[in-house]
Write a structure and sequence with these properties.
Elements: H1 13-20, E1 26-27, E2 30-31, E3 34-35, H2 40-45, E4 50-52, E5 61-66, E6 73-78, E7 81-87, H3 105-112, E8 116-120, E9 125-131, E10 141-148, E11 153-160
Antiparallel strand pairs: 1-2, 2-3, 4-5, 5-6, 6-7, 7-11, 8-9, 9-10, 10-11
């Protein structure tokens, strides 16, 4: 389901691209106009403004957030290329198939079937569940869901293998 965006006549046109992401689903290959593998410069040319997130990494790996975007989403960039998009608690962003924060492990199985692989997650006391797409050209991408001890998704991410599977992100 897409959310509607009301834009006033005084809205800055550069903010519209950022606001439009609120209505887009997360795919294994990106979010709205942001494609996994894009450089930070390419994202800026799409009218999106990025801000480095404090204490989110250093050197070649760093997280960025979208300016004027309140949804808790982070873009992990390595060598100035976005290789994964993290969706954190409080986000209303859904995957293309409809998974979101709060989805159950059973719902993930209904949505993704036998394309899931689960392992125990000692940090969340739940599981790390990885979706591997079968579509041609998408074999280097994954969706990774982290569940809690009640079997509910607490965060998830999409991106390029292997960086999308790193539980600690840029640390």
């Amino acid at each position: 389901m897409k959310r509607a965006i009301a834009v006033s006549p005084t809205t800055n046109v550069r903010e519209v691209a950022t606001l439009a992401i609120l209505t887009e689903p997360l795919k294994t290959t990106g979010l709205g106009p942001i494609e996994i593998g894009m450089s930070l410069g390419q994202i800026r040319t799409k009218g999106l403004r990025l801000e480095p997130m404090a204490n989110s990494g250093s050197g070649e790996c760093k997280y960025y957030k979208l300016q004027n975007h309140s949804d808790p989403i982070g873009l992990m960039a390595i060598d100035n290329r976005v290789l994964r998009i993290d969706v954190w608690p409080g986000s209303e962003t859904e995957t293309l198939s409809g998974a979101k924060i709060g989805s159950t492990e059973e719902e993930l199985v209904q949505l993704y079937g036998d394309q899931l692989e689960a392992t125990a997650n000692p940090i969340t006391l739940g599981k790390t569940i990885v979706f591997t797409p079968k579509d041609p050209g998408e074999d280097i991408f994954r969706l990774v869901f982290e569940t809690d001890d009640r079997g509910r998704v607490v965060q998830y991410r999409a991106g390029q293998f292997p960086s999308v599977t790193w539980p600690e992100g840029c640390l």
